[in-house]
Automatic annotation (TrEMBL):
This is Uncharacterized protein. Keywords: Membrane, Transmembrane, Transmembrane helix. The chain crosses the membrane at residues 40-63, 69-87, 119-140, 152-169.
Amino acid sequence: MKDFDHLMSVWQEQPKRDQLSVDDVLKQVKRGISGMSSKLFWNITGMGICLAGLLAAMLFFVFNSWVTYAGIIIILITMALYIMMMVRDYRIISKQDVTINPTEYLQSLKEYQKNRNEVYGWLYNLYVVLISTGLLLYFFEVLQSASAAFKTFAYGGYIAFILFCSFYIRSHFVKSEQEKLNLLIDRLVRLQEQFD
């Protein structure tokens, strides 16, 4: 019986989680989501400008090889698909107000997090493969008259850049975004538990 009493006293002495202020949590969530949606908006805008520039290059420059056109078309299709995915994510996180229905908003945030995990998983690798294939086909004609040393430098630099982006920048970006999302979701879950 002493063990049970001791266990009860230890349990009762545990610090209780602080009660969250509804206004503070909602302001923090709104600020976090606003930052994420703004970042997504500018990513969409930047990718759209690049897409338009590449399309203009394909239409107004004359290339001798069909391989170059095939490379540009692969890049254009890949960029268009990526823009569509970013627009979908933008709609998910900015389509509703957290103050209207926090429970529904929490579900949409979890859906967004799941979609982003999928994007940064195998879809990102597919994106890199398609963009790389398109650029290599494009470089086939563009670097045709270059010296062997310059070709080696260009291809080596490109491969190093892709590896750096894939393994270093991507992992830091994903980790940072997941931490932000987890923090927002945790705050909303704790707020929801307060009222349940």
